[in-house]
Design goal:
This protein has a domain of 144 residues: Rossmann fold, CATH 3.40.50. The strands form two sheets. Strands 2-1-3-4 form a four-stranded parallel sheet. Strands 6-5-7-8 form a four-stranded parallel sheet. The protein is α/β, with parallel strands linked by helices. It is globular and about 60 Å long. α5 links the parallel β3 and β4. The mean pLDDT is 94. The protein contains 15 helices and eight strands.
C-alpha cells in the first residue's frame, strides 16, 4: 500500500522498531531513566517499570555478522542469539543499565552465561520461568517473583504497591490499544500492511510505555481519519521464532497478499489478555505471567491450547494461509513447526514453512517461495 497521506505517529513507531538505540530510548536515558534489556514474553516488565526503569527488547537488529560472538558460541547456536551477543560485544548495547534474561531456551539463556564474562557489563539478572503449569511450578514461580522484586529494588529503585499498580494500568492500556489496532485488521479491508503491523507491535518493546501509548492513540486516530485501506486477495497469518527485520516482513508480502495478523510473542500473544486490576498488583502480575496469556512452544503439555489459539486467529482474521518460520538451529520451533503442520493439514488450512537466517539475507528466495504459496492459495480459492 502506497500511502498518500503522511502519518507521523506511524513513522515514529517504525523508527523505534527499526533501531533499539532509538531517539525515544536515548531521551529516556538522558532524563535519568534506567534502561533494562529484557527477553520476551515472560519477563514481568511491570516490576521493572514500577522501579522507574524502561524495559527494551534485547535483539540483534542491524547486525551484519557474528564474528565476535563466535568466540563464545558454537555454530549450532541460533543466529538470533549470536547476532544479539555480537552487538553486545561491539558496544551497541552499552547504554543499558541492566538486563534480565530468563530460561527461554538453551540458546538464548547462554547470553546471560557469556555476558558475565564481558568487562564493563551492566547489572545482570536471571529469572527462572517454569516450563510446566502445575501447582509445584506455581509455588516455584511465586518464590522467583519475590526474589526478583527484591533484586530489582536493590539494583534500580523501590517497587511499591502503588508503583506496581500504576505500571499494571500502563501496560494494560497498551494491551487495549494494541487490541484496537488488531481490530482494524479483521475486516475485508485492512488499515496496515503486515510489515507496518508487526513493526508497530515491536515498537512496544522499544520505547517507554507512556510514549508508546500516546503514539498508538495518535495512530488509531490518524489511520481512521486518513481512511486509507487495502483489500488483500490473500490474507496471511505469520507465526514463528524471533523476527524483527522489516526487510524480512516485506518479503512475505506482495500486491496480492498481506500478513493481516501474527502469533508473535510481541504481537497478539502480548496483548491477548489483560492483567487483573482488581487483585493485589503483585499477585496479579505473578498470575498473569504464569498462566494468564497464551502459551508458547516452551511450555510443556500445552500443544492443544497452542493449536486452538492458532485456529482462533485463522477464524477471527479470515486467514487464507499460514506462514510458519523458524530460525536456523532453533530446536523449539522445529518441533512447533511439525505440530503446526500436522494440525493445519488436518484442518485443511494451507501453510508454508520457512527456515530462515536471523540476518535479513536470502529475502529474494523467501519472496519467490511466498509468490508460489500465494498462487497456490489463489488457485485453491477459484
Amino acid at each position: 500500500m502506497v500511502r498518500t497521506k503522511k502519518i507521523a505517529s506511524l513513522e515514529k513507531l517504525l523508527v523505534c522498531a527499526g533501531n533499539f538505540a532509538n531517539p525515544s530510548v536515548m531521551a529516556a536515558k538522558a532524563a535519568g531513566k534506567k534502561i533494562v534489556g529484557i527477553q520476551y514474553p515472560e519477563i514481568p516488565e511491570e516490576i521493572l517499570i514500577a522501579a522507574g526503569c524502561v524495559p527494551v527488547l534485547l535483539r540483534g537488529t542491524g547486525a551484519t555478522g557474528t564474528e565476535y560472538a563466535e568466540a563464545y558460541f558454537r555454530q549450532l547456536t541460533c543466529n538470533y542469539t549470536r547476532c544479539t551477543f555480537d552487538q553486545i560485544l561491539q558496544g551497541k548495547w552499552d547504554f543499558l543499565d541492566g538486563a534480565v534474561i530468563f530460561n527461554s531456551c538453551d540458546h538464548m539463556r547462554r547470553i546471560y552465561d557469556n555476558w558475565l564474562l564481558v568487562p564493563g557489563k551492566p547489572k545482570l539478572s536471571f529469572l527462572y520461568s517454569p516450563k510446566k503449569r502445575t501447582p509445584i511450578a506455581k509455588g516455584f514461580w511465586h518464590l522467583q517473583i519475590d526474589a526478583f522484586v527484591k533484586e530489582v529494588a536493590e539494583k534500580y529503585g523501590p517497587v511499591t504497591k502503588e508503583g506496581l499498580s500504576a505500571a499494571v494500568k500502563l501496560t494494560n492500556e497498551r494491551r487495549r490499544l494494541q487490541q484496537e489496532v488488531y481490530a482494524l485488521q479483521q475486516g475485508e479491508a485492512v488499515y496496515l500492511t503486515g510489515t507496518e503491523l508487526l513493526m508497530v507491535m515491536l515498537a512496544a518493546m522499544s520505547m517507554p510505555v507512556e510514549e508508546y501509548n500516546s503514539c498508538l492513540k495518535a495512530l488509531l486516530a490518524e489511520l481512521k481519519a486518513a481512511g486509507e485501506t487495502m483489500t488483500p486477495k490473500v490474507r496471511l497469518l505469520f507465526v514463528g521464532g524471533h523476527a524483527d527485520s522489516a526487510e524480512f516482513y516485506q518479503a512475505l508480502e506482495s500486491k496480492r497478499a498481506q500478513v493481516v495478523v501474527d502469533g508473535m510473542g510481541f504481537g497478539t500473544v502480548a496483548c491477548y489478555a489483560l492483567i487483573d486490576e482488581t487483585k493485589d498488583p503483585l499477585q496479579a502480575v505473578e498470575d498473569f505471567y504464569f498462566d494468564g496469556k497464551p502459551f508458547t512452544p516452551r511450555h510443556f503439555g500445552t500443544a492443544k491450547e497452542r493449536m486452538a489459539y492458532l485456529h482462533e486467529l485463522v477464524r477471527k482474521y479470515h486467514v487464507d494461509g499460514v506462514v510458519v518460520a523458524r530460525i536456523n538451529m532453533c530446536d523449539v520451533w522445529a518441533m512447533e513447526q511439525f505440530m503446526m503442520r500436522e494440525y493445519l493439514t488436518t484442518e485443511d488450512i494451507p501453510l508454508t514453512e520457512l527456515e530462515v537466517n536471523y540476518l535479513p539475507d536470502g529475502v529474494g528466495q523467501i519472496a519467490t517461495r511466498m509468490q508460489a504459496f500465494v498462487e497456490s492459495i489463489e488457485a485453491r480459492k477459484h
